Amino acid sequence: MAQPKITSPKPYTRARPRATIDWTNYVPGEFYDEIISSPGRARPATRSLAAFMRKQTIKHLISRQQAADLAIQEMGITFTVYSEGQNIDRSWPMDIIPRIIPLKEWQVLERGLIQRLTALNLFIDDIYNKQKILKDGVVPREIIDSSPEFLKQCVGAKPRYGVWSHVCGSDLVRDADGTVYVLEDNLRVPSGVSYMLENRAISKRVLPQLFERNSILPVADYPSQLFDMLTSLSPRRVAHPEIVVMTPGIFNSAYFEHAYLAQRMGAELVEGADLVVGSDDKVYMKTIRGLSQVDVIYRRINDDYLDPEVFRPDSALGTPGLFRAWRKGNVGLANAPGAGVADDKVIYTFVPAIIKYYLGEDPIIPNVPSFLCVDPRQRQHVLENLATMVVKPANESGGYGMLIGPAATRKELALFADLIKKNPRNYMAQPALKLSTAPTLCGNNIEPRHLDLRPFILQGKKHYVTPGGLTRVALRKGSLVVNSSQGGGSKDTWIVDSEGS
Amino acid sequence: MLSRVAERVYWLGRLMERTENTARLLLVRHNAVLDLPKEVQPGWDLLLQVLGAEETFARLSGAATEKNIISFVFGERENPSSIISSLAGARENMRTTREILPSETWERVNSLYLSVARRSNKDLPRSMRHSVLNNIVQSCQQVTGMLAGSMNQDAAYQFIRLGRNLERADMSTRIIDAAAAGLMGNVDETSPFRNVLWISVLQSLSAYQMYRLNVRRSVDREGVLAFLFQSTVFPRAVAHSLQQIEDSMKLLPEHKKASDVVVNLRRQLRETDFSTLAGPDLHLYIDALQLQFISVHSAIGVSWFAHESQQ
Fold this sequence. Notes:
The complex is a heterodimer of chains A (501) and B (311). Chain A has helices at 47-54, 58-75, 103-128, 132-135, 141-145, 193-206, 208-213, 222-231, 255-265, 303-306, 322-327, 345-348, 351-359, 376-384, 410-422; strands at residues 36-38, 41-42, 78-83, 86-91, 94-102, 167-174, 180-186, 243-246, 268-270, 275-277, 283-287, 290-293, 296-299, 332-334, 371-372, 389-393, 403-404, 427-431, 437-442, 445-454, 456-459, 463-465, 470-474, 488-496. Chain A has 501 residues and is an alpha+beta fold. Chain A has a domain at 371-431: Dna Ligase, domain 1.
């Protein structure tokens, strides 16, 4: 991939380097680029950004990037990675060149995301209650029966509004022809929203000029939207229900976010040991005044660890009795236990059918074409085309345990072929997409890098979608892996109304 | 407010104060080196005595040279009372209570920690000491100021204040103890440097100017002791710190047990005649006082942090 050339031969040794960004040297190639459609040509919504950058020297951009990195370090925006049995706190990587989506296009995506979550919640509620969709044969029963995310303990539960997944993060990707697909849904404890908010805060700090020229949808009210949604789940009809954020603790990779959201909502950040379930099956927290009742828990701890009485008995992170309190309707839990039954990567392949079944509508955002390894014919196709496929285990997140065919060695391909044959239910595969790119500051150059987008969707009494979301970018050349735990970075995401300008 | 969070911000208060006091101690020691003739200079090991770190030092750092002691007190992570350890502890407590603290205070503490951590494995040459240490003291004071100026003066704030003042009282007594025992031993009653040494004790606590303003008598043993123990107007005096602790406690729920301990302690302190406490008696008195501080600390724990399940 080519890079924009610096017009001056030695930009760093000159006293007054005048080298500015030249888009004619930026070649997106076979990929769809979010900013530059072909060398020298910016897309309509991104013209103002491209024009601004054309006037900047690379040196200036680098200095802005350094200012952003420093601000991130000083604000302590970090994430934790597990590596060789150790937890390492790393500064959040953010590329200062924003990713831009035109408002018109976004409005369609927004409707699509709401459609999808609405249908998925109807599906989960159905699965734990009447199971109509199984009886009608739209989703095969054995897929649910064999799903480790289907929690028998939840059968018959009726959370308020019939909503199980209150906070959803769906990953969107764009293929070479510009089509946006849903790559996966995260219905359990999706993370990343705090980084979306902090990316915007950093952008405003280091590139304030750009905000004057563009009309960009603000993202800052997410915490208050989240708070309102959580409030709508309170079982007690009181003016100020007690809402808490429950974290597994400082060693969790998303601890930063848990603390951030609690702070922005003015909610207590609790750990399992701070809570106790009384003989009245209500949840209390231990305070300096004694015990105080809790109404809604935004839990950022997995189902498994939530309640040692019901799930893993060795869990020291949860609170004994929590599940019981929820089943009795004495506390709201977001997200509800068992919601993961619908973000299984095998269930994913049925989402278009699920939308059609419950809403009678066609999906607004398509799924990536997917092959189920449990089906013999589809499995055959996957095994024959492994080198061009992405293979995912049904129940892993964070990009762990994945095979990216085009980037894999022969040994890895053989290993995955074996894994698939041994446990077909656990795998699904998709043709490797040509993920879209955007200009990214890489060392001393601006180069195209692949990216995705994770918008966050709330559902309680009503819906809310973050304008944009968290753009994750694969910083290594040619790489398609955007997870921050595996060397990915991020970008601020702008929904820009270019009609009025 | 969660008990766990209360306990963490209490320790945040203690450890920030400890960071500041330790930096002050190094700073004053550094200045004394420049002021005093060699023969009356207290040994560098006096610092270790004040911090109660002699054993740890002997285990970790070998010879008691100026260079070794400075890096032990400044940047040795294995030394739990070093500046870097206190600061790392303060930062960790803050990192887990960020949601209730004004975000700019976290940024300040975090960037202070990063700047000290960058220096922590290097020597601190004389030419750099003043600016590095002074920066630490100023940053700590900035944080105290930010908290006073931008944080709700609610329970969380009172716990920070409790930690800060208890730590301050404790450190003041350590400094006086070490000064009276270690420092004065070398110097003849009539030596002209006695005054200079008492002045340096006042300076260790930023008390010299305030002493002058408030006491209006020459700097001597009785005057200094009475001021540092009993003054109710000087913020680093023991009596003043205890007053603050009592005030904070009374703003917290269920405070009777804990505040009674402090009320008694204050009365005891008020009734002590420091002109008659000399030599070993003073040392014994201070020992007893520090045990009392520990009982204040335990009373705080029992009243607000420890939780027997009541349900």
